[in-house]
TrEMBL record:
Protein known as: CopG family transcriptional regulator
SUPFAM superfamilies: ACT-like
Coiled-coil segments on the chain, per record: none
NCBIfam families (alphabetical): hyd_TM1266
Listed Pfam families: TM1266-like (PF21699)
UniProt xrefs under InterPro entries: Acetolactate_synth/TF_NikR_C, ACT-like_dom_sf, FeFe-hyd_TM1266
Length: 89
């Protein structure tokens, strides 16, 4: 089996249900080891929509775990883009 390698990427999160905020932050905390940076924009242009962007550095399994858990939350949309190049763990 080939050795796992890290990838660098971005994860975009759109939060439309404020009731999911607590669980969303808990999931981010659980995956803090792969999050290199976070930027949030609350209430985009006065709308009740929050946008969070993450810079991640982890294996595809780790990043998939993060995005998979976030994607199950009500009112949360998640998309990711990962580098093609891999990096040693």
């Amino acid at each position: 089996m080939p050795e796992q390698q890290n990838r660098i990427g971005v994860v975009g999160i759109v939060l439309e249900d404020p009731g999911s905020t607590l669980r969303l932050n808990e999931i981010l905390h659980e995956h803090a080891s792969i999050i290199s940076g976070r930027m949030g924009i609350p209430q985009v242009r006065g709308r009740d929509v929050n946008v969070i962007s993450l810079v991640v550095d982890g294996t595809t399994d780790d990043i998939g775990s993060l995005t998979g858990k976030l994607g199950t939350l009500p009112g949360v949309s998640v998309k990711s883009a990962l580098s093609k190049k891999t990096y040693p763990l």
